[in-house]
Amino acid sequence: MKKLWLIFAQTTTIGLAIWFLLTLLNPAWLPVNKAREVITLRESNRASAPVASMPTRETPPLAVSFSAGARKAMPAVVNIYTSKEVRSPRHPMLNDPFFRKFFGNDDPQRASSLGSGVIVSEQGYIVTNNHVVESADEIEVALADGRTADARVVGADPDTDLAVIKVEEGKLPTISFADVDKVQIGDVVLAIGNPFGVGQTVTMGIVSALGRSQLGINTFENFIQTDAPINPGNSGGALVDTQGSLVGINAAIYSQSGGSLGIGFAIPATTVRQVMEAIIKDGKVTRGWLGVEAQDVTPELAASFKLMPAHGALIAGVVRGSPADKSGIRPGDILLTVGKKDVRDSSGMLNQIAELKPEDTVEMHVFRNGKDLTLQVKVGKRPKLAQR
Among 9, 212, 370, 380, which is disulfide-ready with 323 (CB 3.0 to 4.6 Å)? Predict the structure, then answer.
């Protein structure tokens, strides 16, 4: 028994001695210390990784609001109510007094419609669509502050579907014009108008496309496309940016049901300003004219003319005695530039020429028989017969 106790005591003493030496020389060799080291490394990794850190309080995301831009533009957007006399086709039997006793007189009916407009001058000038006020006998404008006033038509331009009306209400709030050249696809825009007559309404979307043309809506087309909901009654209303500046006048939608499908078209503010200023000054819009028929240059046509890449407008016909004829432009020429602006297609060429002032001489470049030619063209006045 003593021998067993002696062996146990010696074994315990030797074990304690070994443990003391290990602790003194290298603590990392011990299993306990290794475990502590692993824990320390894991805690260090957690501390250095911001993803795994536990914030004391989560910061809520910032709310996005366009109320400032809407508040700035809304006072300058008005509701327009129009009415006109409509006479239905008269049945021949109603010419007989006997039948009129039973069916009554064929008295004319009054049709009413609604739209929107934008105040562009403190003197009461309002821009809207021509189709909103066309042939109207009575025009009533409802301001954003609740006032109403009768309006008269100052002038209209059916080629761009724009019109200017005027109210006599003293000093009025106006809208500022945006720099349309800086507008980009994807920019947020707000549509303000009076859809379905429910009252002034603001909807939001983005600019879906720029320079839309050849839609068959107007003679001169350079639309801004947007997916901001636009419905009947929005016509003539404002399309503004997030600062409340006018980007365009809402004019049309693509729809098979009559409601918004996310494809709306607005007339750019640059065109609105040009037409507005001309109507206020002269009561009408005077445009430049060359007297040519043009078509787009397709890749196949460009290859046959050895013009690469495909661009410009192919002159398909020239009116005899027109400014184009007098300046030497011939059928088969490809018009490359008007002034200092490149011609992209026939629709763009029509808009560029229309912006020129009659009687001005403009330098134009054409491509003829494989060579570039420079011509000096005296711009003519677009005749009424050329207008739709």
Answer: 380
